[in-house]
Amino acid sequence: MKTVKNIGKYLIEERIAKGGMGEVFLGIHPTLNRKVVIKKLTFRGNREIQDRFKQEAEIMMDLKHDGIVTVYDHFKEGQFFYLVLEYIDGISLDRIIKRDGALEPGDIALISYDISKSLEYTHSKGIIHRDIKPGNVLVSKDGHVKITDFGIASLGSGDSIDTRSKLDLLGTPAYMSPEQISNFSNIDEQSDIYSFSVLLYEMLTGLKPFMGEVNNSFYANIKKGRYYSVRKMNKKASKFLAKISKKGMKRKKLSRYKKFRIIREELAKYIKRNSAITHRKSLGALVEGASQSVEFKKILENKKTININKRKKRILHLLISLAVLFFMIIIGSITVVGIPFKIINSKNMGEFSVEVDTIENITLYREKRDKLEIIKRPIIFTKSGSFLKSIPIALPVGYYRLKSTAMNQVQYSSFFIDSYQSKNNNGVKLSFTKGIESKIDLKFNFYDSITRKDISDKVTVEIRVDKDFYPIKEYFNNIYAGKSYHIRLIAEGYFTDNYTIESSLGDRVFSLYSGLIPRPATLTLNGELNKAKIMINSKNYYLEGGITQEYKAIEKAGKSISFRLNPGQYIIKVGDESISLSLKSLEKRVLLYPFR
């Protein structure tokens, strides 16, 4: 791939992100000799997207405020539009929440104060942001907060929004106000106040008030204001801050705060009353990572009014953050500061959460080629209706196992975590029920790890007796608590998998909910491929099949190139030609280009 050295007058250090509509570069301003972020719009097929990009530049170049990312330049070079922005040495708020979950009250108050002050300013200019969310809030290493991305701000009034595609364009569903969903022309300052209050809720609980698949039911919950209160999700959350979030999230606009000035003044009083726990250096410590504990220790030494319990609690909070940050470095998931986590790592990272009705112990493993690796990330649960739901954590794409125990029962679940770009559900739901005594009741369910289709009727479970394996149905009445048993799962077209049933005296039920990995097919393209661009399902990368699933870029080919692909439907495009095909497990398919 050709390395970009200059864009316009800006020297390019590196490309730091690439998405479906554009690229983001880290550059150097030629005269100021400082780092800048350069956004390049590569998506040229939609005039509305181009207009949105130019509109963002026009709006942000007119905004001059310490709490708003500065836009230095906007230009067109060749066929592409560019936006040059201030480089923030820090990370986005969604990264912090994803890493730490619920934040400390002092940190929440400062972040909220800065956001409300910035939005008070934009509203005074007649500009409504319309997409307030953690991914559009940046926290710098010096503890200051800035908002960015005015791509849909001040759009003209439109018709009632009925399609999901328009909703995605005109805001982020989880943070939209009821009026933003129903009628986009009815948006004003109260709509930003609503989105801000959702963001505040997320800082207080570590979770969004509205979660799940974005469908009609999802939007209905927003319109009717159906969500769990902050204190129900996090009993330790600040009552004062929870009250602000609740009022700002009223489904009727007239019941919300009228102006951000009122919110800012309320937060200023809170910060003044709690000056011992509100510090810019504390915010900076959340970003710094390696220097967190040292920096925060200095803060505490300078504030004798902080009691010992609060010291221990906040130091522990920072040490946990440091441990998580270190782990993320080890797995290679740390990304460029200031760029939303999901955008940069969307191909290689996914999200995991588990829902249980009760739990005593839980262990998460990552499957490697010849071993299981324990995932040491803490799994933190919050109440979600009649279930306990864990706070989502980011993990590399791959296969995992979950071992959970409760009520003298052991459950194993095997599943594949796909990337953020995939629509596959990466959640696991477990339910513990009464079983039989002394003997262990075995419960098996199996599915295709890629398609999620149930394949229980295709799987044969065998148990090892002495040195040989036999169908487990012959031994169902001879599986007792307090012993260990080795089983294997066999299905045509899938890799064989192995498990050890480990139980303690008193265990009554062993449940295995396992996804089996399909054996990949091989697709080979032959022909004059030298100058042809190859795409698989409209992407310039693909998910390589096999035991270790991995997203790989499609390299340039000479006269032949092969791909290991999971069974399924594909559209292969080479140059201007395309062909649809279906691949089966272990199939070896050869295509000649040009296609005939």
Describe this structure in words.
The longest helix is centred in the middle third of the chain and has 23 residues, at 308-330. This protein has four domains: 6-86, Phosphorylase Kinase, domain 1, CATH 3.30.200.20; 90-276, Transferase(Phosphotransferase), domain 1; 348-516, no CATH class; 521-593, Immunoglobulin-like. It has 14 helices and 32 strands. With 596 residues, it is of the alpha+beta class. A six-stranded antiparallel sheet has the order 1-2-3-4-6-5, with helices on one face. It has a six-stranded mixed sheet with strand order 12-11-16-17-24-19, with no helix packed on it. Strands 10, 13, 14, 15 and 18 form a five-stranded mixed sheet that branches. Helix content is 26%, strand content 31%.
Number of strands: 32
Distance between the termini: 30 Å
pLDDT below 50 for ≥5 consecutive residues: which ranges? 152-169, 289-308, 325-344, 432-437
- Overall, the morphology is globular
Largest beta-sheet details: 6 strands, antiparallel
Number of domains: 4
Please, how many helices? 14
Reported CATH architecture of the largest domain: Orthogonal Bundle
Give the class-level CATH name of the largest domain. Mainly Alpha
Rg estimate, integer Å: 27 Å
Q: Which structural class matches the secondary elements? A: alpha+beta
What is the CATH superfamily classification of the largest domain?
Transferase(Phosphotransferase) domain 1
Which strand order does the major sheet show? 1-2-3-4-6-5
Into which percentage range does the β-strand content fall?
25-35%
Subunit organisation of the chains: single chain
Q: Residue-averaged pLDDT, rounded?
A: 78
Helicity, as a percent range = 25-40%
CATH topology of the largest domain: Transferase(Phosphotransferase), domain 1
